[in-house]
Amino acid sequence: MASPVSFNDRGQFDRFIYQRLQHDGYPLNNQLAMMVNYYSSGNDRLADYTVKDVIQTLKLKNLNAHNLTLINQPTVHHLNRLADPQHGKLSIETTGKGQLGVGLVRTIEKQLRAANASEYAIRTNLTGSAQAGTLKLQYILLMR
């Protein structure tokens, strides 16, 4: 991972998450992804629009707001422990040996199991620098 995080790093991070979740039996749902993109397109959208409102606005079929769980995680704490469970060194992410993606997938899978969900969509925002210790991670997760 570059320092600071590059566009390519963010894409690689997202692909890792999608591939690992797919491999573990959690397929990405395109309709849920459309909703997450809608929420991500404006700063006030999460606060102003309910899941039911977004389903109606986007005219999505076969989705029921009562069957969906939305998690907005504006700040993921303890990134150093996700990246390096043994020593807590965030800078390990710059070496290619970090576990940040694996740790986030574990967290997401716990949330999917807790919601009894089998499909998901996620939007992550990874910024800052692992080397400088300023790495930040945010995400929006929608599950069904």
SSE map:
Blueprint lengths: L6 H17 L6 H11 L4 H4 L2 H8 L10 E5 L5 H5 L16 H15 L5 E8 L8 E8 L1
Antiparallel strand pairs: 1-3, 2-3
Helix pairs in contact: 1-6, 2-4
Explain this structure to me?
With 144 residues, the protein is an alpha+beta fold. It has 6 helices and 3 strands; from the N terminus they run H-H-H-H-E-H-H-E-E. It has helices spanning 7-23, 30-40, 45-48, 51-58, 79-83, 100-114; strands spanning 69-73, 120-127, 136-143. The protein has a 3-stranded antiparallel sheet. Strand 2 (120-127) and strand 3 (136-143) form a beta hairpin. Helix 1 packs across helix 6 (100-114) and helix 2 crosses helix 4 (51-58). It is globular and about 45 Å long. The relative contact order is 0.24. The mean pLDDT is 90.
Structural class: alpha+beta
Strand order of the largest sheet: 1-3-2
Instruction: Please trace the helix and strand order, writing H or E for each element.
Output: HHHHEHHEE
> How many beta-strand segments?
3
Mean pLDDT: 90
- Described by the principal axes of the CA atoms, the overall outline is globular
Contiguous low-pLDDT stretches (5 residues minimum) are none
Q: Provide the β-strand percentage band.
A: 5-15%
- What is the first-to-last residue Cα distance? 31 Å
The percent of residues in helical segments reads 40-55%
Main β sheet profile:
3 strands, antiparallel
For the CA atoms, what is the radius of gyration? 16 Å
Count of helices? 6
